């Protein structure tokens, strides 16, 4: 009788899995006990205030928030409120996730993609201004191009973009900024929270983010009227009337009271989650400090404070002798999830032929970059497994 050897499948180490604190259940239970199950309710109000309190640590910069179903919904509402429409142009960082770009398409506008710079891997101010000048000149000559309605930088993997330079360009050409701060809750630029710089900003609480509500997001703005309008539009733009009456097209984007309860519990541990992600980043830096051919996404100077939501590295195959894909596959064999950096949006089939300004820095970052497991609940055993694979690869 032949005895087959049973294959042992190791427990998966996820790229960035949710990390519950246990405090979330109190708020969720309150929603059930009080029958606040539908959208809106005390948890939604409380969650919005919790986020605002966290972002408003600088008293000279006060924002308000609207809790929504996703970060993409927040970006979409920002586009709607800025009047982005068919024929208009929006300058968008190419090195990002499709949630940044899709809302522009929803509005029928045209995207001009902007390259990254090497310091932060985020929107390059020089390429941004080059694109604006080019389109302004072409518009003046031919009148065939629409108005530039917004600039959308992204704080990639929690790293703040070069906000001072981008803000100066925004002011110079009178083009509002919509910050994609989906990955940057707990990150700061010049001691000011990411998400408080633009006309509006989007946060995400997706399952893999630094805190999560399972799904969810928020719109942030210094301007009360933006938040009031977002709340109105996100509840199907129902007019103030006894019957259902609508004078504008609205959206079903409001966060539910149950989901917001999870968010309230998560906000209580946000600073601890940032601390743990930064400690993870340091552990990887310590491991790679004497290994040539590996570099990190770095804070350029003391103006930048990243939550290091994800630890991202570049692997130079000319030095290491293997690629980031070789490393990713070696980790995958041991049931450890790592991912390539975002594929630039101007290289995506859906945006084939779109305008792109820059030197292709984001393309090189994509080809060499890898996001390592970065969850705030990684255990010592998890790190032992990860480092065992990396040691074999780099020895």
Distance from first to last alpha carbon: 43 Å
Give the SSE order as H and E letters. HHEHEHEHEHEEEEEHHHEEEHHEEHEH
Number of helices: 13
Structural class: alpha/beta
Q: Biggest sheet, strands in spatial order?
A: 1-9-8-5
Anisotropy-based shape: globular
Largest beta-sheet details = 4 strands, mixed
Low-confidence stretches: none
Mean pLDDT: 94
Question: How many beta-strand runs?
Answer: 15
Helical content class: 25-40%
Mind telling me the C-alpha Rg? 22 Å
The amount of beta strand, in percent, is 5-15%
* Quaternary structure type: single chain
SSE blueprint and pairings:
Elements: H1 24-33, H2 42-55, E1 64-68, H3 71-81, E2 89-93, H4 98-106, E3 110-114, H5 125-142, E4 148-152, H6 163-173, E5 178-180, E6 188-189, E7 192-193, E8 200-204, E9 217-221, H7 224-233, H8 257-267, H9 270-288, E10 294-296, E11 304-305, E12 311-315, H10 317-320, H11 324-333, E13 339-340, E14 355-357, H12 361-368, E15 369-372, H13 380-394
Parallel strand pairs: 2-3, 2-4, 3-14, 5-8
Antiparallel strand pairs: 1-9, 6-7, 6-11, 8-9, 10-12, 12-15, 13-15
Walk me through what this model shows.
The structure is a single chain. The protein has 395 residues and is α/β, with parallel strands linked by helices. It is built from 13 helices and 15 strands. It has helices at residues 24-33, 42-55, 71-81, 98-106, 125-142, 163-173, 224-233, 257-267, 270-288, 317-320, 324-333, 361-368, 380-394; strands spanning 64-68, 89-93, 110-114, 148-152, 178-180, 188-189, 192-193, 200-204, 217-221, 294-296, 304-305, 311-315, 339-340, 355-357, 369-372. Strands 1-9-8-5 form a 4-stranded mixed β-sheet. A 4-stranded parallel β-sheet has the order 4-2-3-14, with helices on both faces. β6 and β7 (192-193) form a beta hairpin. α1 (24-33) packs antiparallel against α8 (257-267) and α5 (125-142) runs parallel beside α6 (163-173). The two termini are 43 Å apart. The mean pLDDT is 94.
